[in-house]
Amino acid sequence: MSVTHPIGDEILLGYAAGGLPAVYDLLAACAVSLDDDARVRLGVFEAMGGALLAREQIAPLRHDSFEGVLRRIGGLPPEETVDPGRKVPMPDAVLPRPLRERLGGDAADLLWTSCGLGRREVALDHDVDGGGCLMAIPGGVVVPAVDEDRTALVLQGGFRIGADRYGRGDVVALRDPDHRAVAEDGPDCICLVVGDGSAPIPSLGRRLRDRLLAG
Amino acid sequence: MAVGAHRDRDAFESLFVQFGPRVKMFLLRTGLTEGAAEDCMQDVMVAMWRKAHLYDPGRAHVATWLFTIARNRKIDLIRRIRRPEPEDLPWGPEPDPAQADVMAMQEDSRRLADAVAQLPPAQRELIEHAFYGELTHSEIAATTGLPLGTIKSRIRLAIDRLRYAMESEIAHATSRRGDENAG
Fold this sequence. Notes:
The structure holds two protein chains of two kinds.
Chain A: H1 9-17, H2 22-33, H3 36-54, H4 65-74, H5 97-103, E1 113-114, E2 120-123, E3 131-137, E4 150-156, E5 158-161, E6 164-167, E7 171-174, E8 182-183, E9 189-195, H6 204-214
Antiparallel strand pairs in A: 1-2, 2-3, 3-9, 4-7, 4-9, 5-6, 5-8
Helix pairs in contact in A: 1-2, 1-3
Chain B: H1 2-6, H2 9-29, H3 34-51, H4 62-78, H5 99-117, H6 121-132, H7 140-144, H8 148-182
């Protein structure tokens, strides 16, 4: 693993605490899947949550609370195994498991929508607090600009912003319109792009402008 | 943990007594109503019983494990879709954690919990904001001086071991396949 622009502590802590918009949870789960150092940092933040819980004050429970738990356990089949499919590694998969589960397959199995200049995308369901998409960008083509702050996680290939190179597992905020991300030659650069704005991404107007500028 | 190994009901009850009220308080603080917090806490305890065999005391303190279950349950309750979790690292037969690792993890976690409890109010607030509010901060480790370094190296060690075990497993499986092909 050679992550050079790892996911930031801010997103990881938010993920550990459980306070992130859903799409950022997805990005964090994917980034951690690709980066052991991020996994370690997440473990630290979760240990902090555990430390808070261990020293938490005591809330009064319902008088029959424990009996309620036993009743629920009694009505359930024993859970001796986890779904074995979840444990089988897929070392050649482009998409980390959280994304495969969300989209129902790996990159090659998905229905991509063409969005000009050879770029393709798969939109994620938009919810109230954010949205995102999977993008595939051919070498030499710019990553579409967006109106709001977006965060990208690279999953295949790479792109450059100025002198900086971003590859698989790298996370970057796409917010500066003067420093556009350009996909590298080679296999299409695939990345997960999420944002917490309300506009679908990328907006049609921007797409049109990208196309005109590129043309 | 006795609950995991033997499904010991007494051990389960003592964990319930210790953590049930704390899990409920945590849920109340994150904004759930009394009824929802009680209901969710009971769910968390049921999940603890059912997942006990998956808990690895060499990788996390029981409080940390319960914290993650409570957090996930709460989010699942609010959202319709299941919260995405990172790809699971361990697979195949997992080695039992060495007793020394378990002791060390428990000890480090206890120190961390003590340190959190002894923080000056302003710094404790900073952490609580991150966990109970919508705020996120990256300065926590830097500004609070919590002993996060030891926890970090402990987790790093556990993950490196898992990676190592996974790689030997893969190498073993590959060489076995190679033998079969050769034969």
